[in-house]
Specification:
single chain; Rossmann fold; 6 helices; globular
Length: about 240
């Protein structure tokens, strides 16, 4: 399939990842970094419109099928980092551990409220990121960190290109530690391309797949802007 967008480091497909991933070269991916539909039936208005495949149970099924399609393209020493919501993370953990060995869960502490029962529940001010690895051990890069990642502010709503956009700075930290220099990052649920932008800024190669054209458009725009803002570091 012809890419929707391509530059020297990054390739983005407008496609269903369950079809597109089967074409990736075998054992080529060093890091699967993704933020799949959470299975929380996310609904929003206008730009914060509903997320495709986000109905309860549907998110899980899509993730399971995406991991099955991506399986042969993962290197034996690949790492995987999968964002999830506290309510669906046990199911996500089961799904991921059918393919890879779970090493633990990181917590992205957003230091910020969130909606819901404001007087009857604790603020949902964090997201969970599952960390899993392939059969062949490859250590994390850099000094050892704790599992709670703080200091990465969520993208403010008016600045978001996607309703569940993740901060590029957080994704850069994750890529720097789990993808070697010259390695390949795969994001099967690319949204507005935050993981692709982070990989590009670090000089890593990246492949993304996104089902909705409006988000592919946003990702292509962001990748071009990142190219204009600075030459990628060769790593
Ligand atoms: C949680 S969002 C990712 C947001 C992204 N992290 C960002 O920062 O913009 C998940 C994305 O997966 C896409 N998606 C859902 N099912 C898909 C599928 N089968 N193949 C590819 N993309 C899919 C949705 O359209 C949505 O944009």
């Amino acid at each position: 399939m012809k890419p929707y967008y391509e530059n020297a480091l990054t390739t983005l497909y407008l496609a269903d990842c369950r079809d597109q991933l089967v074409d990736l070269p075998s054992a080529s991916v060093d890091l699967l970094l993704t933020d799949p539909p959470y299975g929380m039936a996310y609904e929003g208005k206008g730009q914060r419109a509903a997320i495709r495949a986000d109905a309860s149970r549907q998110g899980m099924r899509v993730l399971r099928q995406a991991l099955t399609a991506a399986g042969p393209s993962l290197a034996a020493d690949a790492h995987a980092l999968v964002f999830c919501h506290w309510a669906s993370w046990p199911d996500f953990a089961d799904t991921v551990s059918a393919h890879l060995k779970l090493k633990g869960a990181l917590v992205w502490w957003k230091n910020r409220g969130g909606v819901g029962d404001c007087t009857g529940s604790y603020a949902p001010d964090y997201e969970v990121v599952l960390h899993a690895v392939g059969a062949k051990r490859r250590p994390l890069l850099g000094k050892r960190l704790g599992a709670v990642l703080a200091g990465f502010a969520p993208v403010p709503p008016p600045k978001r290109a996607h309703p569940t956009e993740k901060p590029v700075s957080l994704l850069r930290l994750l890529i720097e530690r789990s993808c070697p220099a010259g390695g390949l990052v795969l994001d099967p649920f690319a949204g507005s391309g935050s993981a692709l932008v982070a990989a590009q800024q670090l000089g890593r190669r990246a492949v993304g797949v996104e089902l909705e054209e409006r988000y592919c458009e946003a990702a292509a725009r962001r990748l071009e802007q990142a190219l204009r803002e600075g030459q990628p570091r060769v790593a």
